[in-house]
Amino acid sequence: MAGYFGVLVSDPWLQNQFTQVELRSLKSSFMAMRRESSGGLKLAELPEKMSRLKHVGENLTEQERASFLQESYQNLDVDVDFELFLRVYLKLQALATERRGSGAKNASAFLKSPTSTLLHTISESEKASYVAHINNYLAEDEFLKKYLPIDPATNDLFEIAKDGVLICKLINVAVPGTIDERAINTKRVLNPWERNENHTLCLNSAKAIGCTVVNIGTQDFIEGRRHLVLGVISQIIKIQLLADLNLKKTPQLVELVDDSKDVEELMSLPPEKILLRWMNFQLRKGGYSRTVTNFSSDVKDAEAYAHLLNVLAPEHANPSTLTVKDPLERAKLVLEHADKMGCKRYLTAKDIVDGSPNLNLAFVAYLPAQALRLQAIVPMFTRNGLSTQTKQISFLETLPDDAQISREERVFRFWLNSMANSSYIDNVFEDLRNGWILLETLDKVSPGIVNWKIASKPPIKMPFRKVENCNQVVKIGKQLKFSLVNIAGNDIVQGNKKLILAYLWQLMRYNMLQLLKNLRFHSHGKEITDADILEWANSKVRNSGSQSRTDSFKDKSLSDGIFFLELLSAVQPRSVNWSLVTKGLSEEEKKMNATYIISIARKLGCSIFLLPEDIIEVNQKMMLTLTASIMYWNLKQPAEERPCGSSDSETGSILDTSSNSTMDDTASESSIDDNSSN
Question: What pTM did the predictor assign?
Fold first, then answer.
């Protein structure tokens, strides 16, 4: 179990208990549970959440699982990492075998089955809620309206999703402009190739907005695997609902904190944490003494909801809501209150008392925006409990607002999350400070380079242990020949933004160059440089019959997008519809070309995280990653499937001649000066 899972499971005994396929499935399930718990999974939550796992979910009741954990562990309030999750799973599995008399033979057969680890069931309530969301937001879509509304009582959702169009459109609802809809294949009857292109575009675009799609492929959508399709839809809708929970879009949120230092902390929080803070802010005003820490067990009795809605819309309050004894009846009254406010439900009373984390989060996420809308209609109420005045939050203007840093942080965050590390990254400046995720990523990029014996695994309470981890991160960076002048481990611990971005760029670039180098027909073991990639791109475009050429990845002529469209057409002639391409003369035309380039590249299979602005502004680093991603995709294709004039020997000759190029290969490395000037 070396390499990939050696990082996730460092204990040799645990490695020997599972096959790689089982570990991957359990890892996916574990990460889903962590996301549902807003990034922090407690031991006390496992009895409920493990109900979805086959064997321990089917053969043990939630009470049996809870009783066993209470007997086995003294403290159930500890955070669960993946190894502890696996140990609990094995113990519960043994208990289930003992209780049900399955016998060792059956337990062993279960462990060896690559498809039996997870009980692939779906929540009908979640499906119905997401179908209602889709019916509402996509009702007027010209292509989809002939299929809508979808009946939630059927499996029509999964049938309609099989051509990839619906999920592409849903991604654009969540994050407008992510996919250039000109790139979506929307014929009434698609051939298998066109369907596969849509799903490839969908998955790469989902990654680019922050979805976790590890171990999900295009075939899963084509075959309509319900739990995987619903999982992706769930993440997309969650991103949409939480999109406004930041200070830029809802500056009134600044009233949740007292000073500028707290504001910076608030800005670094993931949206779920901000939502919880907003909810508790309202509850304290309503006299509610408990603190809500999750969208599951803490809201099951519906008391928190009753107090919350009384604060947001007191004119609709029903005194019976707080006096009724039955949680289900209270939940029904809460939803009646929400209906009077005009809120979308997203859940039923039973979903509340069952503690459905996804649906509860969706319900609460809708409340701040709805309260603001009502405030605009009926100003006598401050319905989200936040002032509509902005004079008390003027100091927000004094906080740094570096758009370039924000864009680069987003690129590196999504790239790190695509690496299937043990923790999901919400903010690179905060979540990398203990060094662990960086060590995991380094070990994936250069297997075996990390000395895990001297690394400390989270949670890390002693500050010097974090510094030790980060010192090793810097030491490895120097081994890999990163430019790390004036960067020390403590800079990462302190969250130095420019230095962290400088390191991450070089790590991402190194990974990209290694992927290219490791292709079998590539470079004969020679290091690949930026010059090699540039010469490859120019050669491809030249051999396709075009006169276009670029001198560097900071060539301002790249801003119109024409060169990249010609490159994409050179590697896959049918990929670009030239009737849709503009001349790129105005800013609007440049943006149209840029969004088309990104969508076409993702549709081919390139995993890229840049934005149209990066092309328009000719962000040198993003130009390199885009070109390298296209090159990597092209060189992975079988030789017979590549366009004429594209051969392995040609690639080798390009590398042989350009590796000695006088082009400054360090020009695109992210030094401190680059970060400030790019």
Answer: 0.77
